[in-house]
Specification:
Number of domains: 4
Organism: Desulfitobacterium dehalogenans (strain ATCC 51507 / DSM 9161 / JW/IU-DC1)
CATH architecture of the largest domain: 3-Layer(aba) Sandwich
CATH topology of the largest domain: Rossmann fold
Pfam families: Molybdop_Fe4S4 (PF04879), Molybdopterin (PF00384), Molydop_binding (PF01568)
GO molecular function, one term: iron-sulfur cluster binding
Structural class: alpha/beta
Radius of gyration: 24 Å
Helix content: 25-40%
Number of strands: 26
Protein name: Anaerobic dehydrogenase, typically selenocysteine-containing
Distance between the termini: 24 Å
InterPro entries: Asp_de-COase-like_dom_sf, MoPterin_dinucl-bd_dom, Mopterin_OxRdtase, Mopterin_OxRdtase_4Fe-4S_dom, Prok_Mopterin_Oxidored
CATH class of the largest domain: Alpha Beta
Bound molecules: iron/sulfur cluster
Amino acid sequence: MAYVRVQGLHRNRTPMPNSDKVKTSICCLCNGGCGLKVQIGSHGNVEAIYGDPDNPYNKGKICPKPIEIIENLHGPERVQYPMKKVNGEFVRISWEEAIDTIAKKYKELSDNFGTGSIIGMTSKIGGSFSKFALKIFSEIAGFANYGTGPICFSSEEKVRKEMFGKAAATAPLHDVIYAKIVLNIGNNCAQTKAGQFHWLQEGQKHGAKIITIDTRYTETAQLSDQFIQINPGTDGALGMALLHLVIKNKHYDEEFVHINVNGFEELAEAVKDFTAEKAAKITGIPQKVIEDLAHELGTQKPAIMWPGRGIVCVNNAEHALMAFESLMAILGNVGKPGSGVVSHLNGYGQPANLIKPEHVVKPSFKLPADKVIEGMESGQIKMMYIAGNPCANWPESSRMKKAIGNLELVVSHTLTLDDSASLAHIVLPATHWLEEAGMQPGIHRVMQWRDKAVEPYGEAKPAAEVFKLIAEKMGLPSEYFPDTPEEAWDVERKLIGSISAITVEKMTEKPGGVHYPYPEGGEENHRLYSKGFNTSSKKVELLREKGIVLKYRDPLESPGNESVSREDYPYFVSSVKVAAHYHTQCQYSKLAREFEKPYVEIHPQTAVKIGIKDDETIRIETPTGAISLPVKLTYSVPQNHFFTQPYFGKRYNLDPINTLLPSVLDQPGGNFPHKNILCRAYPEGGCEK
Ligand code: SF4
């Protein structure tokens, strides 16, 4: 029942002998921004990938994912050329025929049913060149596009932006060396940001106390100085009790609050009855532990907070995040060395006046993310352009698969024939990120430039080229599309004031690139908010624009669970990530499959209750779907809660776990919940318990 997964953590491959050509690159798999060395073979292929020891942020350390994707690059499962489906089989077509078909249908549908009848699902669109082209295409075509936001970070983005003015991390991760406390909440970075995890250990060496709050005794928890186990989905209650104690004991930073914070009185009122005793009953954390934590945070400053997907991808994220980010603000833990919030969010802003007003087209309608499947079923949505894998990573994935069958045209721009591409009418070969230059933002709020390492495979093209070709064919103003990644970056940075000084040259001058914001005539900013905030009042807005007052929301009374019978569905299910996999890409690597196959983690006492043993198959059901997977028993997870991994779909002949997750949004945050969803379970072939 040992829990630590040793596979692949902190893997640091050294060059193969006789290497003739090594290129420097930046990993674009998870926004960690790890520096890579890519060894090119005599046929122009990638022979090996290892961590770049000169990169100041990962210092040569990487997780296994970049190594695994060597197989993705050169086949055999890579899509080589455009294809269309004829009588259920894919046949090769030319790029010209593919673009012609897409452009004609796009125009016909937008003329007859409005631009909103065509949607994009672009969670994996490529690097900065392609992302910029997507922005241009969206504005000139009225493209109703859904990116990664609702799947990964919408609630976090909303809270931080409204409170501080920007969604991005306020502190770089390497600031942990100045912190007295690092508060990890729902963040198993030893698995999910394994190339950057070493910073926590460096923080420890410099005297920081690492405190991890999680439902599971994760690898990160095991390597922390203190682990606080919390009942699933109750972080908001802990945050409110900490606020209550810090305010009651006058441990907040009075001067900072007076000068920099709006809404302190309202916050104090909202938490006045949220005692440690009350929070202990909800969270399962002993009252004394909550009181001690509040005292420590109140007296040991500065502190850094690193919230992970465990507090973001849940059905009551917004209020929990608001509580903890408010706590950091009133403690004065922002804008100084060793303080602030670390995050992989890197929204550096939208280009102003990108398109002339006479060329801007708005989508005729855009459904909220939780109504997209309904729109596909009802016929409101008629065409979908995919760069990602919504049949695996969108909630209710089985329903999404069926709904795709209703559409008149489905286009997939993809590396492989994944769950979604195999259902498309047109498949376009996409370039891999190692085949496309561009700017890669990372967890330290740095911008690093990645050169093209290898030539595109087969007839693959970047999304930037595809959007330009479609726009030209549709007769849209295509002069906005830049021709190269360098040109695209130059146009983009000049349109975004806060990054206007960050040229390609600056990013490549020294390893590690440049921190943003960095405006023309200004200076590079390692930390945000040392001189005021980006809100309209220039203060931290605890009340925020819509005046939302902080309150605790129970996960059982939050979206996706509130109308589900606790009697019929007595357990919880959550998806959690592991270092060897990242969404669809790693499914197509033998090495990744060797590292980690899908399974369900269960507490032994829950297993006894259900009547199941190690390695036997369990069936988990929610109102939206069912999956069957082998069981791993471990004391590291709470009782009555199942944990499994979110990536495994078609390549494993499995329904992805997202089939279990409801298509609902954290309100008002906007994230789909991936965790703490009510379920029932029983041994495969047995009966429901
Ligand atoms: S931690 Fe993220 S950025 Fe770093 S190597 Fe792994 S996938 Fe790439």
